[in-house]
Here is the input.
Amino acid sequence: MDADFLVEILLWVKFPNLPMSCWSGNSLSMIGNAISIPLYVDECTMKQSRIFFARVLHQTNVTNSSKWDCCMSS
Here is the structure.
């Protein structure tokens, strides 16, 4: 691959309407691993002060499109 192209990016991913039982570090990590490499959660997610969505920062390889076909349902 050409060294002039960026292949790894940092991307904030929102998980809307996530049940509170899935807000632990282990659960968010497992869910995040389905997409890419989870790095951090934002402060509101960590403190559970905003419960409409959880937000996780991911390191993502943009050349791997198969990961973007992930879908969740409850």
About this structure: The chain has one domain: 8-62. Residues 8-62 form one domain. Strands lie at 8-16, 37-41, 53-61.
